[in-house]
Amino acid sequence: MTIKAYRREIIRAIRGVDLTIVEQAAVALLQAERIYTFGNGGSGATASHLAGDLAKGCRLQAFCLNDNTPQVSAISNDIKYRSVFVNQVRLYMSRDAGNEQDVVVAISGSGNSRNVLYAVGLARSKGVVTIGLSGYDGGKLAEEVHIPIVVPCHNMEQVEDVHLVICHMIKVLLLEKKNG
Questions:
Q1: Distant-in-sequence, close-in-space partners of 94: CB < 8 Å, separation ≥ 6
Q2: Contact, 171 vs 59, CB < 8 A?
């Protein structure tokens, strides 16, 4: 693929994102008491970036479950990697009854990462609003979350690129709503 073709495909993928769903996600985040983000690999980096933007730029309580390296590696090593996010969701969302005001943002390029899906399932069972960012056809994640944001693209790098663009769109929307 040439860089011109890559750019053309990125533009096509961005245009394919349903902005009304992105706006729904922003509204849910604005109403949240706490926000938890997570994902694997590049999606984990995007989850961390999003949590940072939400906390610093939008002054929301946002936490990335990928960012506690000792906890992530201990769960992965001592239990199972598929439990890395579900164990944290269980811990953080069992402390009080206000969980229904929490929001989970799960990011998976394929939409089929088992560890992401396990955590989403537990969050949903606790009444937590769930947002999913995925690519391709959305995978199982798009079926499991309340607010599915799907990048209609079959190239993982481009899906990851557009996920970051979507996160920045959400930040712009939140700042508009908070200041407007």
A1: none
A2: no
Domain 3-179 has CATH 3.40.50.2300: no
CA–CA distance, 92 with 94 (Å, rounded to integer): 6
Backbone angles phi, psi at 130, to 5 degrees: -120, 135
pLDDT in tens, the chain (180 residues): 899 999 999 999 999 999 999 999 999 999 999 999 999 999 999 999 999 999 998 999 999 999 999 888 888 888 888 889 999 998 888 655 446 789 999 999 999 999 999 999 999 998 899 999 999 999 999 999 999 999 999 999 999 999 999 999 999 999 998 887
In this prediction the pTM is 0.95
CA–CA distance from 81 to each of 60, 87, 166 (Å)? 29, 10, 27
* Spatial contact of 105 and 74, defined as CB atoms under 8 Å apart: no
First to last CA, the chain: 42
DSSP annotation of 124 reads H
